[in-house]
Amino acid sequence: MLFDWGDTLMRDIPGQSGPMMNWPVVQAMPGAAAALQLLSQRFTCHLATNARDSDEAEIRQALVRGRLDQYLTRIFCFKQLKVEKPAKAYYQQICVQLDCPGTQILMIGDNLHNDVLGALDAGLTACWLNLHHGENTHGVQQVENFDMLTSWLLSGLE
């Protein structure tokens, strides 16, 4: 399972720049910690971000500050992959590094184009975390909050 970072797991605070680990305030998105706590017991959870200001270690430090780090195994970022979502190469490199076919990876993110349509185009499954109730003109799988996400994912396992 791959999660986007900015405005999916951690709030991207307007006006802040540079590595998130250095921001005066970092905030997990509402419901993110509880969802990751539950989901990480059943799935291996990773982070996939386009953030250009932070490398893996800096992202991990921001996650520590947001109390989400213990739930995420691997971090995939621009500085490591040298390509951004929605490029197929971005997702293909992750599949190779995880030694897992895309059909067995679920990408969850708030950006319909980069996180969801990009992942689907690369052969992954995807779910739009549609926090702002945007119009789902593509008919993709969507949830409106983390409670809905965990209910949807865990209901298929019971």
Describe the structure.
The chain has helices at residues 32-39, 56-65, 78-81, 88-98, 112-121, 146-155, and strands spanning 2-3, 46-48, 75-76, 106-109, 125-129, 142-143. α5 links the parallel β4 (106-109) and β5 (125-129). The protein is 34% helix and 11% strand. It has 158 residues and is of the alpha/beta class. It is globular and about 40 Å long. α1 packs parallel to α6 (146-155). It has a 6-stranded parallel beta sheet, sandwiched between helices. The chain contains 6 helices and 6 strands; from the N terminus they run βαβαβααβαββα. The relative contact order is 0.17.
Keywords:
alpha/beta, single chain, six-stranded parallel beta sheet, 6 strands, 11% strand, 34% helix, 158 residues
